[in-house]
Amino acid sequence: MKVNMKVRARGTCASPRGGRALDVGSTQQRRGRGAFSQKASMNENVKKETQRFRRGGSHLSLRDSKAVVCFAGLGPDDLPSQADSIVRGTGNAPQVLESAPKPPSDIEYLQELIAIQQNGPKNIGFFGTRNMGFLHQQLIEILSYAMVLTNNHIFTSGATGTNAAVIRGALRAERPELLTVVLPQSISKQPPESQELLKKVENVIEMPDNDELTLFEASSICNDDIISRVQQIICFAFHDSNLLLETCAQAKENKKMVTLFYLD
User: Fold this and answer.
1) pTM value?
2) Dihedral through CA 153, CA 157, CA 159, CA 164, nearest 10?
3) What's the sign of the alpha-carbon dihedral 177, 183, 185, 187?
């Protein structure tokens, strides 16, 4: 059985069973026009959404299974990039990176110093780092001297640096009864320069039971003892002075007034 096929025109073929001719070119053109029309429609929708962006509209629209999200008052160029979204966050979402807190101003430091003298004389504990420059030691001496002159009782330890400056300042006020030095261990365990200075102090409390402990452990016990004796503490520390910062935190837990000065 023979099957005759006639080509009627370019891109057109007859049906093998004698049916109507199939216009292949026309079908492809219609499909192409349909895809182009669909693409043009999507572009038109995007233009409309863009115009709504610029007018400050706020809505969520779905077009051909593709979500277009519009933020109020923003245009397409204002949308954050992926990197910006990670660093700054999007919309009302909390930012990943937060700005570092600002250091206290000079006014805040003065307010702390004024608060020291409120409510009359009190027992004040001085803590601080051993690593301190000459100028800082002079300032601490002046502060300690002023505290004793205003009838405050000073408690401190016997290390070099801050403690030595506090002792020298208090001794200058010539009120020996208002200075008490609490040592973390026996006086013989202290540095030679500290032992020489401690000879001028009338009230020295030693802790010989801590001689077998490390200096860090003994100092922690000593700081706790001083906190229990005072109403307020003044501390001079660096941001990495872990023991001193722990001491300040513990004093706050015990409802003590804490004045903390950072040296860095």
Assistant:
1) 0.56
2) 0
3) negative
